[in-house]
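Q: What changes when uridine-5'-diphosphate is included in the input?
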Amino acid sequence: MIADLFAVYGASGCGRGVMPIAEQQLRRLGVPAERLVFVDDRPPAAVVNGRRVLTYRDFLASSAGRHQVVLAIADAGLRETLAQRCRDDGVEFWSVRAANVVVMDDVEVGEGAILSPFVTLTSNIRIGRHFHANLYSYVEHDCIVGDFVTFAPGAKCNGNIVIEDHAYIGSGAVLKQGRPGRPLVIGRGAVVGMGAVVTKDVAPGTTVVGNPAKLLVKV
Ligand code: UDP
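A: The predicted holo structure follows.
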């Protein structure tokens, strides 16, 4: 039987942060080191941090039981485009989770997630596909998080919050907890700026910044 081939897709900042976590995870599972590679459509070098970088075409052409990818690219739109391409080509998605991630009760996380070191997901949480939870971010109880959502380092999502697809929560931002039956809602594709303190719903496609967070009007 031919072994699976695992890839971290994206060999730039995000991918280089994910690779060591991926490596540790696969080592724990006894996967040989050479079965883990970077994939990048514009390889910055043939080898990055000691790992081979393959183009997507070369990855697909490599002999493997299953081809498995985690999309380590911060831009959610690119993640969605690449997810569709991978799916069309029969590539599967794996999730990368640091060893010290805390996951409590009744938590569902969709395929292709990246849970970085010191992430906590508490209880009764639903999270969609290709979620990125960067260092020290958390999701508290009774939250619903959509697909292709990105949490920068230290993003704080308190209880009873709904975050729609493609939203981006900046570094150190705090989302005020909602109430049962009346969640705080971060709309589809909304951006919450770093350090923002969000006390009210954020409309889809808008950007909020500051404390308390206000609509960013670009001049
Ligand atoms: N990339 C790719 N295919 C695409 C778009 C991007 O392989 O269709 C790669 C790109 O070549 C780069 C990485 O993804 O190496 C994105 O890196 P960037 O520094 O822009 O962002 P980050 O690492 O923070 O996500």
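Observations recorded in class: The first helix runs from residue 13 to 28.
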